[in-house]
Design goal:
The chain is mostly helical. 82% of the residues lie in helices and 0% in strands. It is elongated and about 50 Å long. The protein starts with a helix and ends with a helix.
């Protein structure tokens, strides 16, 4: 599987788990920082998910291209 194909695959799998994580993280951030706008917490959660996906894809691509 190519890097772009894997990226697309990762983005499409586990939508309910990703949503559950997003909700849980937003709830946690709201408890920790109640004075911050909920939109900012949602942005933080979305950024965390995007960075995690990026790390997964980067690791896959590096592993795939590593000399054997």
């Amino acid at each position: 599987m190519s890097g772009p194909d894997f990226t697309q695959h990762i983005a499409s799998v586990c939508p309910s788990e990703r949503q559950n994580f997003r909700v849980t993280l937003v709830d946690y951030l709201t408890m920790q920082f109640p004075g911050v706008d909920s939109g900012a917490h949602m942005t933080t959660a979305n950024n965390a998910i995007a960075l995690a996906q990026k790390d997964i894809v980067t690791t896959f691509v590096k592993h795939k291209t590593a000399p054997k």
